[in-house]
């Protein structure tokens, strides 16, 4: 992803994720371990709790897109007890994902039962920094990988231990902490299948820009999703009013973990494609991951543009829902200070919507040019002298709708300091 200098616009925040390659015996990358990083300069993770795990999952699957982070390779993610026992639900399927059981976890009956359920659902398990007589032996029949801190292993017992692990046929060994050529030679000597360490590659920190979460909308969405008779229209309205959540839902609908290649042109399609269960899981993780906010003024501006596009769509024989998405995506790109094309390539959009956003073609492209002209005050390009081209009504409706939407989310008298609603668009 881009460097920090690319993301300087107000309204954008930076998210980071670390990844360290895992190599096979031929020197090819077999997978990546994803690591929590609080900033782009972080060398080591400073926390390995439920927050860190949620942070890594949300960023990998929605801010970056798993295909960009790991491609078609395996993705190793540290799990905490809450995820292993089912107290917190994994919001992705088992494809290309390996769940690492940290050495700090007390492997009791609840963990064994939870891991058994995860394996039955198709997830692969790795035992991280395996330590003998720590209780983790109970998980060996369920594991696909055992990760050994090779430099700290007893060399006199290493061959015996490897032979024991290989008594469980599915298990492959991952030697980690490799720092010297001697460590690599030891891997070759014992035929260790996978290798990880500084001698091969240090962790890389990836950085992306995102719109910070809209906290109260997340809580409202969770409430709507938890209702016995979940109202799809209300859920779509809540998501549509939150630019950051809209981006994450669109990205999640294209995630390799969802297992779909369908394209979408509206938020409703993305919600139906993902299913309310997936949306609920992501919303829960976003609440855990909630660390910053966009100002109300920025939200009003983004939603005003999206609503204006929705209002103008019929004049261009365009679909209003697709027009709303087009307007919101261009507003989000502006908030992040990145080119719209950079954002579009991560989203599962239809061909027509992609063409409008990247090349300005088709009815949606013509509509976006008029909206751009209005924002620049370019009356000639807008063609306002032609009958029926007055935008005043559409603009005023968009302002009222966006202001009311944001006010409803925060409540009158509870606006954040410095947040002033836009009066022109």
UniProtKB/TrEMBL annotation:
One matching Pfam family: HDOD
The UniProt record lists the keyword Transcription regulation: no
Xref: SMART domains: EAL
Gene name linked to the record: yuxH_1
Name by which UniProt lists this protein: Histidine kinase
Keyword Kinase carried by entry: yes
GO molecular function: kinase activity
Residue intervals of the HDOD domain: 211-395
PANTHER family (alphabetical): CYCLIC DI-GMP PHOSPHODIESTERASE CDGJ, PTHR33525
InterPro entries, A to Z: dGMP_Pdiesterase_EAL/HD-GYP, EAL_dom, EAL_sf, HDOD, RNase_Y/CdgJ
UniProt keyword terms in alphabetical order: Kinase, Transferase
């Amino acid at each position: 992803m881009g460097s920090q200098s690319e993301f300087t616009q107000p309204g954008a925040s930076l998210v980071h994720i670390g990844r360290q390659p895992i190599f096979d015996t031929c020197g090819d990358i077999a997978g990546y371990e994803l690591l929590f990083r609080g900033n782009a300069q972080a060398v080591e993770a400073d926390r390995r709790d439920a927050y860190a795990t949620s942070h890594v999952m949300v960023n990998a699957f929605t801010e970056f897109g798993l295909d960009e982070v790991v491609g078609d390779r395996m993705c190793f993610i540290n799990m905490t007890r809450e995820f292993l026992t089912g107290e917190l639900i994994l919001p992705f399927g088992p494809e290309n994902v390996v769940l690492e059981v940290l050495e700090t976890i007390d492997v009791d009956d609840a963990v064994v039962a939870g891991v058994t359920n995860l394996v039955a659902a198709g997830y692969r398990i790795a035992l991280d920094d395996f330590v003998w007589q720590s209780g983790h032996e109970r998980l060996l029949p369920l594991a696909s990988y055992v990760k050994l801190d090779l430099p700290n292993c007893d060399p006199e017992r290493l061959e015996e231990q490897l032979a024991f692990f290989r008594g469980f046929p599915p298990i492959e060994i991952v030697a980690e902490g490799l720092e010297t050529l001697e460590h690599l030679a030891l891997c070759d000597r014992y035929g260790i299948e996978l290798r990880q360490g500084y001698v091969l590659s240090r962790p890389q920190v990836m950085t992306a820009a995102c719109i910070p979460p809209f906290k109260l909308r997340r809580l409202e969405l969770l409430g709507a999703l938890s209702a016995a008779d979940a109202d799809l229209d209300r859920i779509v309205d809540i998501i549509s009013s939150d630019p950051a959540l809209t981006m994450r839902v669109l990205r999640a609908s294209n995630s390799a973990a969802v297992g779909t290649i369908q394209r979408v042109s509206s938020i409703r399609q993305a919600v139906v494609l993902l299913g309310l269960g997936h949306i609920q899981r992501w919303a829960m993780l976003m609440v855990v991951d909630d660390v910053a906010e966009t100002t109300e003024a920025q939200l009003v501006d983004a939603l005003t543009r999206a609503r204006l596009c929705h209002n103008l769509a019929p004049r261009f024989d365009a679909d209003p829902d697709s027009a709303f998405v087009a307007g919101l995506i261009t507003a989000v790109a502006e908030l992040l200070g990145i080119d719209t094309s950079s954002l579009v390539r991560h989203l599962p959009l239809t061909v027509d919507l992609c063409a409008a956003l990247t090349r300005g073609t088709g009815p949606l492209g013509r509509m976006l040019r008029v909206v751009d002209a209005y924002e620049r005050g370019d009356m000639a390009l807008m063609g306002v002298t032609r009958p029926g081209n007055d935008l005043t009504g559409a603009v005023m409706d968009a302002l009222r709708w966006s202001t009311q939407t944001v006010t409803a989310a925060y409540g009158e008298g509870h606006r954040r300091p410095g947040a002033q609603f836009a009066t022109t668009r």
